[in-house]
Amino acid sequence: MVMCCPAGTRLAEVNALAGEQQLRFPLVVDPAATLAEHLAAVEYASASARFGPFVDNVLGMNWRVPCGRLVRIGERVIKSATGYDLNKFLLHSDGRYGNAVDLVLRLRRRGGEAVRCILRGAHPAIERARISLLRSPWIHWIDVVDLVVTAGEPAFLYLAADCGRGDVAAFDDYFRQLSAASGTQLEATEALDYSLPKLSLKTVITAAPPLAGELVREHGGQARVLCASGVVHYLPPRNLPLLPEPTLRRLELQCLEQGGHSYGPWSPRRDAVAQESAWATTLESAWNHL
Amino acid sequence: MEPSVTPPHSSAPPHAADPLRACVHCGLCLEECPTYKLTGDENNSPRGRLLLWRAESEGRLPPDSWTDFYTDECVGCLACASSCPANVPYEAILKQARSTRVAAGRTRVRWPVALAARAVRIPRLFNAALLPLRLLRRLDLRPHPLIFPGKPAVAQSTADYARIMMARHRPTGPMVAFLTGCLMEALFREINFATVRVLIENNVRVLVPAGQGCCGALHEHTGLPGHKELAAQNHAAFAGIQVDRVVSNSAGCGLALSQSLTGTPVQDVLGFLSEIGVKPRTRQPTNHRIFVDLPCHLVHGQRASISESILDACGVPWEYAPNAHDCCGSGGVYNLNKPANARAILAGKAAFLDQLPETVSPILATSNHVCMMQWQTARSFIRHPFEVRHVIQLLDPEAAW
Amino acid sequence: MPPAERLREVMPTGMILTSPAQLASYESDALGFKRFRPDAVVIPGCAAELIGVVRLLKDQAVPFTLRGAGTSLSGGPVAAQGGVVVHTSRLRRIEKISPTEMYALVECGVVLQQLDQALQPHGLYYPPDPSSAPSATLGGNVATNAGGAHCLRYGVTSNYVLGVEAVLLDGSVVTFGGPAGGRGPYRDDWKRLMVGSEGTLAAFTRLWLRLIPQPAKVWTFRATFLGIEAVSAAITHLATHVSCPAAIELMDPRSVAMVENSPMAVGLPAERFMLLAEIDGPAPLVDHRVDAVAAILRECGSDDVAFSDEPDIRAALWKARKAQGGLLGQISPDFLVQDAVIPKSQLAEILQFIYDEADRSGIPVATVIHAGDGNLHPNFLFDSRRPADVAAVEGLSKRLMRRVMEVGGTLSGEHGIGNDKAMYMEEFVGPAGVAMQMAIPRAFNPRHQLNPEKIFPERHFASP
Q1: The domain C217-406: what is its CATH number?
Q2: What is the DSSP string of B167-202?
Q3: C280 Cβ partners below 8 Å, 6+ apart?
Q4: Per CATH, the architecture of C94-213 is what?
Q5: Which residue among A99, A256, B143, C367 is least enclosed by CB atoms within 10 Å?
Q6: How confident is the model at residue B401, as a pLDDT?
Q7: Distance in angstroms between the alpha carbons of the first and the last residue of chain A
Q8: Residue in C125, C192, C373, C375 to test binding to A, most A beta-carbons within 10 Å
Q9: What is the DSSP-derived secondary structure letter of residue A269?
Q10: Which of residues 293-322 of C touch A (CB under 8 A)?
């Protein structure tokens, strides 16, 4: 259940190929974007709720170091304790140590049925639903638990799961129970269209929803909270070319305090501190003279 | 392709010749071991001790006082044996290691223990020697923190008492032979009397075979000589008589006796009572609550427990004490030989008592007198008042509380 | 060696062991026959003392090695080059369990089972479950990226490490990540290199671990199969089944025979593969899949399918699998277990290869397999007192490793490389791979003072 493909492959193509074997690569934000574009913009996708971040789903790579040499990194099997984990270290290293040429993806079974719903309601009701779901064993079976916060609209919770035909009724029951218990309104929905965010914030799971609310309240646009991952994906309004640098720094600092960080095209450039700079230089110089 | 499933080499024969080599060094015993958890020193763990003994026996390690130290440090709770996937016969190996060390003069047993080990071999002498202590207990005076309260008969023996009770009540049910024990008989005789009463109340015929002696556990724990002779003595006293069961009210004594009496079924008295069913006590509601601690030699030695039906029959709300399967640090005479370790182990187990609401009057109940003595010492550092009882005392028709 | 007074100064409540009989227990991990006696063992009494000891040792011309419970199987936490073993057994404080943020903060010496028990009342779950869970420390788990039977569905240790606090060889105490599991103040994600680094980069002091809700309901299935084809088909079907099994474990006929010829026999038919599978989840999802899973096992050729959701019966179904490891000690003076991972499709071929090679070498072998992820544990049984046996096992291991590489597998799935498999690393990663990999200790531990001769044999400590 692995697939090797060039980093320039679009996620739609990946899933078309995998689908022939009744398999899928679930970490998709924008099917039209390539793997490389995903890796540069995000470390998590909605389906990370069930399958974890990209680092847990990319098993190996052909990696081109800056000197041009191609090196095999990681594995073609789904489990490894062999040597230092360069694969996870390099995957989102932003071009500093080279670039992925090909990727070995871990695939998952395709259930064939999709169940999706939206839960709407007042803030406390949405919060009840979110918290209840994160503490429920159902979380292991639900691909998407996203809180979607859009300027000028009430926030809602978007849930989606890939499942077998025989499971649809059980999911529907669960969604109904969750909605009733939390006091939210349940709506059926089609898959939401997503595109790659400009900014991605990684923090603890309780801090992510307020961070998303603050961003949208102050700057408009849309923020999606990947609730189980503690990640906020921010899509600015069309007329916003960039968030002000101090805002970006402040947001990042909030994440940093919890051992999180910001990522993606708008993430403020961060210089290595002296200690880190020494480690990075050692790696760069070794890897540039292979 | 079909792999050839049958190995050309049938599995190599078990190397029973050297039980020390059965340990695969997996380490699953570590967290079961009270002294490893206490010290964090791997030498002070079952795996560590086995390795030291094996290295010494294979000549890779010269005899070393540290090996003797770690051999002495073991409480002998046998929790490691319960968790061992390789079934290493730890108890037998430990006994062997200790007795060879004592015989070779590598380990010195403290004189009061050595003296006691000699004295218990002559029950009449031991009973006479401890008469003053029985008297003090009878008068509610306790000369040592290990001695828990109770009012033993000073002169009347359990054998005499059992004869009188049998004649008075004439039970008709199954017949048991009762091991009265050395220290139990000499000092804590009231528990033996309670045992007789509970058995007879439940229609059990009680026989106290003459000529029985100490079970020999003390000698095995310490490595002192004498166990063989005692085993032979008890074999002579018990093996020939026709009874349904040999019973003991002390988990450690029961284990040692069962190893002496091959072929004769030895059982803990509480296990036997739970099999035949026991008359429940009904009591007025009180603020007592029973916390049951399981003796290691019952759980890990005899691989038995105290059944819920027995505890329900006590007529007082009960629950298992936290970590009831872990050792209390008593270890026979371990609390005399290694008082600091024993106290630290007990302190961890007993801490829950201080967390109880003040309105609760806890009774710490177990089924081994050495564990009772150990728990009694916790009264010096636990603020919440509590009593220590043998479970059989909680079933006693004449119980005074 | 640092003078004892200096050591006592930095660890007033710790222990220092130096007598031969005190060092003996630290000669090996659970790979018992490879022995390296350290020159000293220190047992810090708390995290501050651990930091003090590392700072003291780094300035001495002595190699040192961190050790958790020493339950590893690849010769990782041993003094391969002598020096000092730093035992973390007393750093066992669970500092925080956060049910709202879903993480735990633990000291490196906290035992996996201790964490499991502490999580129970919160309904939380930390999934990695190596067989050594009753004793193994979380520091050791993180250092080896431990797996276990249930990592098929829930992932291995690296999927659950949010942050690592560590003492580095420049004496600094750093935090890589934290409750949020990101990078913290650093530009790069250094914790990714710390996980699985086998104690060669830093001394871990505290760990932030991600927690998930407990799966509500568990069903265990046990089935026996006559042939490898049949059992392979069953594994493939299960691995892609809608129930997403949490574990798929396999015991080969030789292991089954070993259990059945022992006092631990559970009455399995002889000369058969035994497959164990577990499915879990909320009852409405999992209960109605039970018949389908049983049907797969039967359709693939098992006439002997047992399953249950009762804890006692489930434990009985697992019994043979759990007994297997310990039995090795009863039938063989020594054993060596390999840990290769192969693509599942190669299972039959590699198993035959193991049998052929082992039979030719005269070495009995019993194999258990985390079949869902292709992680093989062939146990080679031998007597380390016979040099010919040792040579045969080494040759056998080497040929197996070559074959594993040829089919696209890896050397170790969950035990780590240690010093036992270090000799295969160069062949496995190639010269460029060695250069890539060796850059990492060069950045953090350039003189290889920390845990030398592990992962790569050329990681040799040379005092300045």
Answers
A1: 3.40.462.10
A2: HHH---S-EEEEE--SHHHHT-HHHHHHHHHHHHHT
A3: C153, C215, C216, C217, C218, C219, C246, C286
A4: 2-Layer Sandwich (3.30)
A5: B143
A6: 56
A7: 32
A8: C192
A9: P
A10: none
Instruction: Report pLDDT digits (tens) over B246-300.
Output: 999 999 999 999 998 887 889 999 999 999 999 999 888 889 999 999 999 999 9
Label residue A270 by pLDDT band (50, 70, 90). Answer: confident
In the chain, the amino acid numbered B207 is: L
Total structural domains in chain B? 3
Asked if C192 lies within 8 A of A85 by C-beta distance, the reply is: yes
* Cα A199 to Cα A192: distance, rounded to the nearest angstrom: 19
Chain C 16-45, CB below 8 Å of chain A: which residues?
none
Instruction: Compute the C-alpha angle B225/B229/B230, nearest 5°.
Output: 95
User: Is the same domain home to B259 and B367?
Assistant: no
Q: CA C178, C182, C185: angle at the middle one, nearest 5?
A: 80
The C-alpha torsion from C407 through C412 and C417 to C420, rounded to 10°, is -80
Residue A271 has pLDDT above 90, yes or no: no
HSE-CB for A249 with a 13 A CA cutoff: 6
Contacts of B28 in chain C (CB under 8 A): 71, 132, 134-135, 326
| C103 in A contact zone (CB under 8 Å) | yes
Q: Is C245 in the A-facing interface, judged by CB distances under 8 Å? A: no
User: Could C22 and B21 be called an inter-chain contact, meaning their C-beta atoms sit closer than 8 Å?
Assistant: no
Whether residues C348 and B1 touch (CB distance < 8 A) is answered with: yes
Query: Among B103, B122, B137, where does a domain finish?
Result: B103
Q: Cα(A80)–Cα(A59) distance, rounded to whole angstroms?
A: 9
Q: Tell me the pLDDT tens digit for each residue of A3-32.
A: 999 999 999 999 999 999 999 999 999 999
Residues of C in contact with B60 (CB under 8 A): 24
Contact: A276, C179; criterion CB under 8 Å: no
Contact residues, A window 88-117, toward C, CB-based 8 Å cutoff: 88-89, 92-93, 96, 109, 111
CATH assignment of C4-87, given 3.30.43.10, 3.40.50.2300, 3.10.450.50, 3.30.9.10?
A: 3.30.43.10
Q: Is the Cβ pair A71, C239 closer than 8 Å? A: no
Rounded Cα–Cα distance for residues B15 and B172 (Å): 50
CB contact under 8 A, A83 and C184: no
3-state secondary structure of A90: helix
- Asked if C20's CB is within 8 angstroms of B64's CB, the reply is yes
Tokens of B319: 């629950």
**Contact residues, chain A, for C443 at CB < 8 Å:** 278-279, 282-283
Nearest C-alpha in A relative to C443: A279
Which of the listed residues B241, B276, B311 is the one where a domain comes to its end? B276
pLDDT tens string C30-74: 998 899 999 999 999 999 999 999 999 999 999 999 999 999 999
pLDDT tens for each residue of C140-190: 999 999 999 999 999 999 999 999 999 999 999 999 999 999 999 999 999
In what order do the strands lie in the sheet containing C365-370?
A: C305-308, C217-225, C273-281, C247-251, C365-370, C375-382, C334-337
- Side-chain-side CA neighbours of A263 within 13 Å: the count stands at 30
Exposed / middle / buried, residue C405 (Cβ in 10 Å: 0-12, 13-18, 19+): middle
Question: Which neighbouring-strand residues pair with A115?
Answer: A161
**In B351-398, alpha helices (H):** 369-377, 391-394
H helix or E strand, kind and range, residue A256: helix A245-256
Q: What is the mean pLDDT of residues C427-439?
A: 94
Which domains, ranges and CATH numbers included, belong to chain A? 2-109 (3.30.465.10), 113-188 (3.30.70.260), 199-263 (3.30.70)
Residue B324: inside a domain, yes or no?
yes
Q: State how far residue A245 is from chain C, nearest Cα, in angstroms.
A: 17
Domain, as residue range, for B271: 112-276
